[in-house]
Amino acid sequence: MLTIALAKGRLAKYSIELFEKCSIDTSELREDTRKLVVYDKKNDTRFVLVKPSDVPVYVYRGVADIGIAGKDTLLEAGLPLYEMLDLGYAACKICVAGYENKGNGKITSNRLRVATKYPRVAKMHYDSKGEDIEIIKLNGSIELAPILDLSDVIVDIVESGNTIRENGLSILEDICTVSARLVVNQVSLKTKADAITPLIGRMKQALEEM
Amino acid sequence: MNKLKLQAPVGTGDYLPDECAEKRRLEQTLRETFQMSGYDEIETPSYEYYDVFMHDAVQYVQENIIKFFDARGRILALRPDMTGPIARMAATKLLEQKRALRLCYVGNVYGFKSNEGRSEYTQAGVELIGKAGAEADAEVIALAIRALLAVGMENFKIDIGQVSFFKGLLMETDITEEQAERIRLLIDTKNSVELEYELSCMNVDREIITTLLELTNLFGGVEVLDRAKALAKNETCIQAVENLKEVYDMLCDFGYGQYLSIDFGLLNNFNYYSGILFRGIADGVGVPMLSGGRYDELLREFGSDAPATGFAIGIKELLVVLESQGMLKDERQKVTVIKCRPQTRKRSYAYAQELRGAGKRVILDMNGAEYDAEYYDIITFE
Question: Which architecture, in CATH terms, is B8-156+282-330?
């Protein structure tokens, strides 16, 4: 049996459409249900619905063979997974944002203070520049941090940039572009190749037709 | 209050009797399998001078190594693997004999790992030092397969790669080491989308880009060898394919074809390995339970030019896979209780010893304590 981890929320809708095009029976998935595990018995496949940031964990540990997750989530998890397809949807960027031309002017703080939901991504970005920073981990409304002087900048996911602009901030730096990715467990790809390889082929084809 | 005294430290774990019995059984089976193949068991210290792990041949991640100081302020490191210490020992104390060394071990290795919680884990493995060529690679892979079969593993695969194919392709470019490392990582995670983007930003020949991209897809059965041959760009690539084919053919002749798969995109621990590399995978645990390969550069760090190859098996991963395949069984013998009174203790003790001599596990009870017949064989000595 093939187990697919799907992120609940905005990725789910696109993912279900994609699987539909790959002749997977998604009728149970479309039902408004509280079930966490749903089956496509005909294709010997089951879906588990998990929190987006948990998708890489399920796949890395091998309890799910494949999963769909945002690249931002994958970067933050930093787990060794096969990342085999860029599904294209849910595309956005991870950026550094803040006030333009503003040093923090503080005697007591000589390190850039970075507020973010993505501490690992932020650390990697500033590590690659050899810059010494202080990370402030937040879980939401990141834009608030520079406004209240909790941080100098933020590292966050940016779709249209509207929230950033409406709060008087600007994008200072692009870190990377992100979108939904198909990830595969490194063991499953080889031990369940008969099921996974054709599915990836069908997904690739469906993406080209979309 | 943090009740630390009630807990095992983060990253460590206890083995309770049920699991410990199985762990010992596996370790003993592996040890015997290695020894019956001509490998001699050795032991090295749990910790080494940090210098043993700090050199050009292998780049360990500094923060993953558990370090402390000796009385003279020198840095010590709990061994992050067995290969480094064995290379040190072999190069400085054994290799003057000028013959191939076949060494095996069962021991704990240490290190902080971000992906998995554990920082102490047991490995069993072998090193074949002083022997180059496909024959030596096939020897250790065949031994790895026999070891997995010996512990009762049924469904598993040995995924084999050859890093020289990728190295050969790199020779056709003039990208920097840093760029090469990024490309390696993307190939190792089969991330063709980002690989294509990265390569398009580098000054690399179009044909080489296509071949590097194809590496993410160059895995499967024996047919992969022909595909790889068609993609080879120079003598290094061709030799890599021929070397892998030779190893593959030899293992098929040994009767192990069904366990093999090939993956030229397998590039983990790249700076360690210099040729064939492989890992053992099975359903039941999401990560490889065995990994190994050829590391011809390492001994040079310790003053010898001996080529070497070997592998290590993660005992915990093996236990998890075997349990999921229903192959763990508690084979401990039931304990016999001899219940006696002070008047009969002399005879009882002698009888207990007689039973122990005959291979029974025996305890003697003089206080009339209760024993559950489900777990004990009870003999009453009046």
Answer: 2-Layer Sandwich (3.30)
